[in-house]
Amino acid sequence: MSKQTDDFFKNVISHAKEYGFVFPSSEIYDGLSAVYDYGQLGSELKNNLKTYWWKAMVQLHENIVGIDAAIFMHPTTWKASGHVDGFNDPMIDNKDSKKRYRADQLIEDKIARYEADGKVEEAQQLQADLDAALNADDLSKLKALIEAHDIVCPISGTKNWTDVRQFNLMFSTQMGASAEDAETVYLRPETAQGIFVNFLNVQKSGRMKVPFGIAQIGKAFRNEVIARQFIMRMREFEQMELQFFVRPGTELDWYNQWKETRLKWHLAVGGDPAKYRFHDHVKLAHYANAAVDIEYDFPFGFKEVEGIHSRTDFDLSQHQKYSGKKIQYFDPEINQNYVPYVIETSIGLDRLFLTVLCNSFEEQDLSTADKQDSRSVLRFHPTLAPVKAAILPLTKKDGLPDKAREILNRLKIDHNVQYDEKDSIGKRYRRQDAIGTPFCITVDYQSLEDDTVTLRHRDSMEQERVAAADLEKIVADLVGWKNLLGGL
């Protein structure tokens, strides 16, 4: 990471805290590693992102429905899914700092530094060596690569490494009224299994016909021992997942279709297409026959924000085996019973939140020959912005606040809006720019005469005079969901 991008990322994190988007969890007790709280504006933005995903997935598709499965599941679920035996990461400890890292991510960071320094051949060779080691599950090779490329601990700056070992990432707890009767259960490490175990319930109760999908948004928990990159890697996070059930033999066609559909969804938010790319998995999970990540170019390099996987019939077959229940679908078109294949799209909501922050944050120099000026602005898509409009009386007297609050009360029924009368109008504009409010409505003395107001646009800072009576329609048209969903 260059100093410029490092400074940018630090500014994003600082801005997120200063304006109420993201706080370190339990900060008054010095925080909890890799755990964050979403503030008053962050929770609004997060809810808008969830709504965008839900509408695009469920509302726009006649053959996709949503569920909300419990976090706790029968422990055999995780045996069937493979998480009990195989949900591991290759970890390495630095003996001097006592810090633990994912070995593959240390190497990936080195690859990124090679690329940033223009050492393309070194980066390509190290990537090939990493892929080979991961494919072979060769932990000693991972350590050898760390040593050969002089990778040091970011904390201690030393190369005093332990061997690479596998660590299970699931949180376990006890369920039961007494210690003697307690049963070990797990906080779910993913939301997908709640969909798979409900396949028959949804299919039968909803009279669903293959191909069809089940969508879910929910919390998941992983004992991530690496606390870095802000909300990129957290122990408690939120997933938005679709499991799309298809006839065997058609899965790769659907896989390719969902790849394009999901990338289009990301780009609709307004991000730079050059910052997104597909990254095909070199090492496929044992249950998959195709897998790709949609990656975003964060200040610290390209990282996954969404995965699209062709999971074959592994999940339903495993639950059929471990439960002893028949989990199949009768396809009347071919007069045949089968276990459906699955295409999965899985997006981390917190990572999506971070992409939107990084995409939107800008520090602008607005200086002229006569005056020094600047602003920090979040260029959120108007539909996703936490606050859609701010209503600002020019002064606190002469009936202007009454007129402004009359407009506020009309708009707040349908939109999240703010009222602000403190400081000069210029300072208030800057505050709204900083939280990403796309429109400011200023009530001035002319408003009392002709019932018009000034509508200011965040991105261009241009102002126009509009009738106050038309504001409900104007704002609805500017921030409505059709602006995002209409082109999908």
> Strand order across the biggest sheet?
3-9-10-16-13-12-11
Gross morphology is globular
Low-confidence stretches: none
Residues in helix, %: 25-40%
CATH topology of the largest domain: BirA Bifunctional Protein, domain 2
- Tally of DSSP helical segments: 17
Radius of gyration: 26 Å
The CATH superfamily of the largest domain appears as Bira Bifunctional Protein, Domain 2
Major beta-sheet overview? 7 strands, mixed
As a percent range, the share of strand residues is 25-35%
Distance between the termini: 34 Å
CATH class designation of the largest domain: Alpha Beta
Number of domains: 2
Mean model confidence by pLDDT? 93
CATH architecture type of the largest domain = 2-Layer Sandwich
Q: Give me the secondary-structure category.
A: alpha+beta
EC number: 6.1.1.14
GO biological process, one term: glycyl-tRNA aminoacylation
Family: Belongs to the class-II aminoacyl-tRNA synthetase family.
GO molecular function: ATP binding; bis(5'-nucleosyl)-tetraphosphatase (asymmetrical) activity; glycine-tRNA ligase activity
Structural descriptors:
488 residues, alpha+beta, BirA Bifunctional Protein, domain 2, Rossmann fold, 7-stranded mixed sheet, 37% helix, 26% strand
Detailed description of the structure:
Its EC number is 6.1.1.14. GO terms for molecular function: ATP binding; bis(5'-nucleosyl)-tetraphosphatase (asymmetrical) activity; glycine-tRNA ligase activity. This protein is of the alpha+beta class. It folds into two domains: 3-87 and 169-357, Bira Bifunctional Protein, Domain 2 (BirA Bifunctional Protein, domain 2, 2-Layer Sandwich), CATH 3.30.930; 378-485, Rossmann fold (3-Layer(aba) Sandwich), CATH 3.40.50. The chain contains 17 helices and 23 strands. Strands 3-9-10-16-13-12-11 form a seven-stranded mixed sheet. It has a five-stranded mixed sheet with strand order 20-19-21-22-23, with helices on both faces. Strand 12 and strand 13 (301-312) form a beta hairpin. The chain is globular. The model has no long low-confidence stretch (mean pLDDT 93).
